[in-house]
């Protein structure tokens, strides 16, 4: 990494952090871990872990202020109004309480050189705006999702007046940032469309921690635990929420029941607003080929991916999601898993460019089945996709390489 610049004290505001295992928590943690290894000083202000169910993890309490050290990272956990990932009003209260608590805690962090805040959640970005002004420090705003556009896209009902107010705050937040870092070129285009100067925007994509996600033998414990012996396993790993569109798995599994003698199994790993609904639907339809694991610790995910013959990455069919580049792509490819990508736009183009899988139309069960048949019946094709994806991830998309690029932006 950049050894010439003086080490920085980076103050990072994030709504999510390990032991939460979602994509934003992993991104911040893995970047911060690389920066600390490089000699930087890192302080993270976050909440008590509770995602996605709004239940505080064992071993933690929702206190006003608590501090711990994780892999050399100073982690300050502040009080928030705890809410599950459903219900607009309660979630906004959760976001606002974090904003207030994070700003107050940030005032007492000694000698930060730069403030970074990651959005969503939207009010985490605003915490960065306020704190950077009060501390008179450079402000880097990280955009991983365009908010409030993303919550409107999944059908969340909000009064038009509230949406208009949030959109106004969104534009002010962009103007307040000295630099904006986003996770893909699609998001950069959307920001430019909102009149953000192109020269203000940097792109640092998601990637994979290749010390954790790497090719490995099939985990026999996982196979035994979930009854996957002699199965062709299609896994989905991530939040089972409103945007994921996993009804497509239920539809595909129901059609499979009349075909392949149970050879293909779907393993849905994670939790979220729609998990119980989909699990109940699978039970009603007596779909023994759909297995829900619930939320698993991050350290168990490589074992899940090791038994996966193909990784499914899927979002509902909305224009907004044509800009996204899910982190799941990088982790699956780092383990040589072929990918079925049901996300239009940049994500599909990326998977095609690295020759790592098959693109399908989102929410199309027949295309999902066709892709599964193609990969499950052609071992050579599956291996070729896995190898191609792996080669590209190792070359260009390791967390260490991306952390170096990010640190160069911090040191500008």
Concise account of the structure shown:
The chain is α/β, with parallel strands linked by helices. It has helices at residues 23-37, 88-106, 122-135, 149-153, 160-176, 185-193, 220-225, 247-256, 275-284, 301-306, 328-334, 346-353, 365-377, 379-396, 399-410; strands spanning 9-13, 41-47, 65-70, 73-78, 114-119, 138-143, 179-182, 201-203, 232-237, 264-269, 290-294, 310-314, 339-342, 357-359.
C-alpha end-to-end distance: 14 Å
Parts with pLDDT < 50 across at least 5 consecutive residues: none
User: Would you tell me the overall average pLDDT?
Assistant: 92
- Helicity range: 40-55%
Q: What does this protein look like?
A:
This protein is of the alpha/beta class and 412 residues long. It has two domains: 9-207 and 397-410, Glycogen Phosphorylase B (Rossmann fold); 220-396, Glycogen Phosphorylase B (Rossmann fold). The protein is built from 15 helices and 14 strands. The protein has helices spanning 23-37, 88-106, 122-135, 149-153, 160-176, 185-193, 220-225, 247-256, 275-284, 301-306, 328-334, 346-353, 365-377, 379-396, 399-410, and strands spanning 9-13, 41-47, 65-70, 73-78, 114-119, 138-143, 179-182, 201-203, 232-237, 264-269, 290-294, 310-314, 339-342, 357-359. The chain has an eight-stranded mixed β-sheet with strand order 3-4-2-1-5-6-7-8, with helices on both faces. The protein has a six-stranded parallel β-sheet with strand order 11-10-9-12-13-14, with helices on both faces. Helix 8 (247-256) links the parallel strand 9 and strand 10. Helix 1 crosses helix 15 (399-410), helix 2 packs parallel to helix 3 and helix 8 (247-256) crosses helix 13 (365-377). The longest helix is centred in the first third of the chain and has 19 residues, at 88-106. The chain starts with 8 loop residues before the first strand and ends with a helix.
